[in-house]
Write a structure and sequence with these properties.
2 helices
Length: 54
């Protein structure tokens, strides 16, 4: 059994509600990534010091 099948099985309601719920959760995860995670990682990685040699 895959992780996605297990998650799909524990979601409540009919299929149309599960689809809406999955889209809402995915939107929330993307919002959290762009708001807090990516800026935090950008401060750690420091892309200004990147050099490319030819």
């Amino acid at each position: 059994m895959s992780v996605y099948a297990a998650l799909w099985r524990i979601l409540p309601g009919p299929v149309w509600f599960r689809v809406i719920l999955v889209l809402a959760i995915l939107t929330g995860v993307i919002f959290v990534l762009f708001t807090w995670v990516f800026p935090w990682v950008d401060g750690i990685v420091n892309p200004i010091d990147v050099t490319v040699e030819q």
